[in-house]
Amino acid sequence: MSTERIKVFKFGGASVKSAEAFRNLARIVQTHGGRQRLLVVVSAMGKTTNALEALLGQAYQQQDVAPGLAELKEYHLQVLQELFPEQEHPVHQRLEHLFELLRHQLQRIASGSNFDKVYDQTVSFGELFSSAILHHFLADQGLVNHLIDSRKYIQTDNNWREGRVDWTWTERLVRRDLPQLLQEGLVITQGFLGGTNNGLTTTLGREGSDYSAAIFAYCLDAESMSIWKDVEGLLNADPKYFPDTVRYPEISYQETIEMAYYGASVIHPKTLKPLATKKIPLYVKSFLNPEGEGTQICDCRFVVTAPAYIIKERQCLVSFGVKDFTFISEKNLGTIFNALSELRIKINLMQNSAISFSICTDDNPEKLQLLIQTLRDQFVIHYNTELRLYTVKNYDAASINRILQGKRVLLEQRTRTTFQLVCRSQDV
Ligand SMILES: Nc1ncnc2c1ncn2[C@@H]1O[C@H](COP(=O)(O)OP(=O)(O)O)[C@@H](O)[C@H]1O
Ligand SMILES: N[C@@H](CC(=O)OP(=O)(O)O)C(=O)O
Asked: Ranges for the Aspartate/glutamate/uridylate kinase domain (predicted)?
């Protein structure tokens, strides 16, 4: 069966946050997608994943989850009520059932259990809710669609909260079933979720639905993938921080991978590799202005039109000093890197001097305490939190001046193309 003309659309939390958002999504599918050969990947509604994380935290500490659960259910039921006013509609029963499963799941959580494993079994409900709603809503709009369970297709190991994809199995399963289903109509599935070979749920990392869509696009040799966002495309900065952004009409995979790596939250960093491998173009489009040109990310030569500004919030700067006035040696560095790798702590920036070594990393208090416990006998460790990491790609004098203005710099680094600095979050 030919898989040539399949397209993949991904809709994030913002594009399914309300009943009106679901209606808008259906219009986009009708106008820009079509009735067949389109795979739609959907994230949890609005901030549902955050709400589920909070519920999980309460359940883990044996606190009462009832009020939070009721609030989350109420949010979903309100949207449901607007989209499906008739009470006999099967979607109502389906959502009731899913919320009952979630309630049981939260009840079962024991305080000593493997937190990361339980996380995946719990936080995954957001996408199960949204995909069930979308499946029924599109069907009611006359858009024939199959709802598939992405946990049965995206196969991962049990690296909880950041499942590593088994590409061979995933490709085999996707190619076995989906081309046929895609000939018959649309296929709807959940972003963010994977499954292990013994039937447990995994997740692919926060905001990982872009990556899910790219995995399906890769396995189906898709013609293109489009991610529908609340911005006009890939911009040179996050408009939530910068009032004067410009859109890149076309940009290379390489440039975008680097932006995502440095923290441009518009695209999950793992998304680009599968697409670049098969040269599948990625369109970043606005669900608020679907006719807009958006951005095409492809195998092109990028001509720099504006420096890119990237901000990573909630950073922590940790410095390791030797205790005996000897220098930081390769052996010392080896010890530090081993501990970081064991604890899965990612380095966002690093720098060494004669007697100390510093890293900038995402602020995670639990992991930081474990790191200190592991290394405190060998190093003097100091840390600062509530920091921000700024990166300017393709910088010039004006962009550096702009970033430096009003900041007390804790650490600064530059290469030929990239300027980075760490400063306090309150220095704006
Ligand atoms: N360089 C950038 N270009 C466009 N948007 C950006 C950029 N950097 C960060 N963003 C932010 O990404 C947001 C969209 O991504 P995200 O919230 O993850 O979407 P969704 O969850 O709906 O998929 C925008 O609202 C914007 O604030
Ligand atoms: N719902 C998950 C996965 C995701 O990708 O969401 P979004 O597309 O809304 O960023 C999260 O919030 O992490």
From this structure: 6-286
224-249 burial, b for 16+ CB within 10 Å, e for fewer?
bbbbbbbbbbbbbbbeeeeeebebbe
**Predicted-assembly ipTM surpassing the 0.90 threshold:** yes
Q: What is the pTM of this model?
A: 0.94
Is there a domain that residue 116 lies in? Answer: yes
Q: Do 216 and 333 belong to one domain? A: no
259 located within any domain: no
Q: Using an 8 Å Cβ cutoff, are 160 and 119 in contact?
A: yes
**Number of the ligand 1 atom closest to the C-alpha atom of 236:** 1
Mutate to test the pocket of ligand 1, among 266, 270, 305 (most ligand atoms within 8 A of CB): 266
Distance (Å) from CA 265 to ligand 1 centroid: 6
Domain boundary among 200, 229, 258: 229
Q: What is the pLDDT of residues 198-243, one digit of tens each?
A: 999 999 999 999 999 999 999 999 999 999 999 999 999 999 999 9
Ligand nearest to the backbone CA of 240: 1
Contact residues of ligand 2, CB 6 A cut-off:
12-13, 43-44, 49, 126, 191-192, 206-209
Residue nearest to atom 9 of ligand 2 (CA): 13
Q: Please tell me the residue having the least CA distance from ligand 1 atom 14.
A: 266
